[in-house]
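Me: Here is a favour to ask of a fellow structure person. Could you put it straight underneath, so I can go through it closely?

Assistant:
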Amino acid sequence: MLLRFWGRLAGLILLAAAGSAAADEFPATARFSDIRVDVRPLRDKGAGLQAEALAADLTEALRRNFSDRIGGRGPRLVVVVSSLSLRPYAGSGARPGLGGNFQTDYLEGEALLVGPKGQILGRHPQMTAMPSSYGGAWYDPQFEGRRLAAIADIYAQWLARDLPRE
């Protein structure tokens, strides 16, 4: 039992050290001149209209969550979306006695701090996961659109929370 405790403690310390090293790769920034979303990696994988809808939802969510930090002469914030996974969903997915929903949607990307000459000043990779049920009733025709908007909003909220300020 004591060995397990020390093993977990060591794991937590390593995780904290790795997290702090990653956070140092993105310099503290008070303001961004602009915010853009790049979904070309998704389009290259054949996402097409879904990628374009995500770009619109994520751009809106980022502008809302960073509204107090947009404008002026600072560097640009560019979010490059590399992966989107919306699981097939038709109800709870739970099995009696085994717990909750195992269907999860994922959005993965990287926030880039881009200088005036296009140089990359900082990087912050991020993945967001949420239950597929966040889009509401699965039989509603607007279900998929609400799932995209929900995961974009959660991604933007976490990014606004995690990026260091000056």
Q: What stands out?
A: The radius of gyration is 18 Å. The mean pLDDT is 83. Strands lie at 35-38, 76-85, 104-114, 120-131.
